[in-house]
Amino acid sequence: MHLSDDERFLGVAAALSRKGMEAGAGGPFGAVVVLDGRVVGEGWNRVTSTNDPTAHAEVVAIREACARLGRFDLRGATIYASCEPCPMCLSAIFWARIDRVVFANTREQAAAIGFDDALIYEQVPLPPAERAIPCEHRPLPSALEVFRAWAEKPDRVPY
Amino acid sequence: MHLSDDERFLGVAAALSRKGMEAGAGGPFGAVVVLDGRVVGEGWNRVTSTNDPTAHAEVVAIREACARLGRFDLRGATIYASCEPCPMCLSAIFWARIDRVVFANTREQAAAIGFDDALIYEQVPLPPAERAIPCEHRPLPSALEVFRAWAEKPDRVPY
What we know:
By secondary structure, chain A is α+β, with helices and mostly antiparallel strands.
């Protein structure tokens, strides 16, 4: 049987999801970042084993790919995820300038086994003060002054 | 002058934003996680200096707080951020079960100095296939099988 690249890399992501789960690393999620036809970052969920709520498979794979490539963006890359990325991972994918996402299981299938992103999808677009976690705006001159200093900083590195 | 706890901790977040910027660590953003009246995690943006697009101030502060406390949730905590959290950080705050967010600068003020979250706010709620970064659903039996195995795993750690 001939597998397409997409099928092959998605299969690697699924295999990592199983590996991480069986090792007790965290939830059953895996991901790989692929650039120019090769895997440059691998990840599986490590939330509970490393006490890091941000250690989702996609975030781990992005961090590994960037570290390996020595860059803070992944233009031209595809990320393959065993499950639809949650809003945190999706936003990380945008910040990393990844070109394309391919995923296998859906958010509904994740919800059915206890991982429910629906609340976060609902909450992100709300006005800050109306969220389930209240987000209070308190203007502070010393904080705004740092923004002004950034705008005038000659050696700033944009991203 | 008497400062409230909120003013004091927000001032610490602003000071970290300046420290990180001046050190060339990354963008002008700082954050602290506070639990029971003390700082348990500090962060400033390190995207460009560590080649990590997920190293926003809030994510760094959450990771540090969780590592220090030896837990993967931060129930009862408040996060103080020098700027309104982006969708990635906001989602991380939800995953970390933080109780409350206090921020100084707004997303509009961030956009004015070149950090524009608006695209990501727009994109997160869209159907996956309609996003600027296309998110393609490719069902894969081996991925779904791992979800089934998780549901039956006797020693799984929920989060």
